[in-house]
Amino acid sequence: MMNDWLNPAQRLGSLPPYVFARLDELKARAREQGLDLIDLGMGNPDGPTPEPVVEAAVTALRDSRNHGYPPFEGTASFRRTITEWYLRRYNVSLDPEGEALPLLGSKEGLTHLALAYINPGDLVLVPSPAYPAHFRGPLIAGAEIYPIVLKREQDWLIDLGSIPEDVARRARVLYFNYPSNPTAATAPREFFKDIVAFAQKYQILLVHDLCYAELAFDGYQPTSLLEIPGGKDIGVEFHTLSKTYNMAGWRVGFVVGNRHVIQGLRTLKTNLDYGIFAALQTAAETALNLPEHYLQAVQQRYITRRDFLIEGLAKLGWSVPKTRATMYLWVPCPPGIGSTDFALNVLEQTGVVLTPGNAFGSGGEGYVRVSLITDCDRLGEALQRWQKAGIHYGMGSTA
What we know:
- There is one protein chain.
- The protein is an alpha/beta fold.
- The chain folds into two domains: 10-48 and 292-391, Aspartate Aminotransferase, domain 1 (Alpha-Beta Complex), CATH 3.90.1150.10; 51-288, 3-Layer(aba) Sandwich (Aspartate Aminotransferase, domain 2), CATH 3.40.640.10.
- It has helices spanning 10-13, 19-32, 51-61, 76-90, 106-117, 133-140, 165-170, 189-202, 231-234, 259-270, 278-288, 292-314, 339-350, 376-389; strands spanning 38-39, 100-103, 123-128, 144-149, 171-176, 205-209, 235-240, 253-257, 328-332, 352-353, 355-356, 367-371.
- It has a seven-stranded mixed sheet with strand order 2-8-7-6-5-3-4, sandwiched between helices.
């Protein structure tokens, strides 16, 4: 029995169990039982990091000048590469001296931004469902969360008109994410104009997570918040190299935008970490400068998997819209089955791992997120197991 004086801080008590940690426990148990798992749970890209990136890291690793503490704000070379990438991609000019900050992955930055800008009791607007760091970071900071429930009928777009006037006036920060994890929804440019106008009216800091900027398909090009007039005045935008470049374990991301907000985050981080190992920053520069054909190959890989899985699910009774971005499908649970029960049933009966939608907030109940992180042979095996186990969209209505 643990002594009371060893209890953790109250801020940890405010956090719901982290679903991916729970999934890891269940996966370990299933493996012990001899199940051949097909893990479509976490957004952990399969395949190696591109060879030019690995080679750049190896060369930089051998350079002893990289072995000391890196600059708190990241190397000047990496910050310049980030701003050059933004200019190429979005025609957005940024100052590498104050409007770009490397991060230990975007999750770290999203969470630490909450600690830097949210006081206990501050009201924070967060869509539901949302990537967990968007609400867990504010919870750690002691925020009061106002969930903006997203709806399929509105294509999972934030309905700014649904936010009560008194809530909007109290709100300090709004986190959002398009292309979206978990719903894979995309937002038209007009939406970004509307959200900038909303934030300007109520003096709300916008935090946009653009980590799926380059996983876009069929000619679709995601919008950057910073492209919108006034966007940089009231917002920042986060990006990661984890998804596009198969660098999830490298922990490299960055934030760009309003220099005052970035300076606040930098000040916090100088008290918490020493930044990214300089050799990894050199490798990240190589990733952002890879030729276009690499990106096209990555996009085609996910297009092929998306189309294959949507077609296979259709044969089992599901109607899943064709996504225009991200590495996910947002799949409704069979009628009458909750997302946790459905995900657990599928795991136990077939060894296929899915993420229950309620892991992303109460607005995700009734759905599971399926990650396109394995090849079509394994996706086909997953579908065959479902068919053999009698898992189909109508199964809940006759249960």
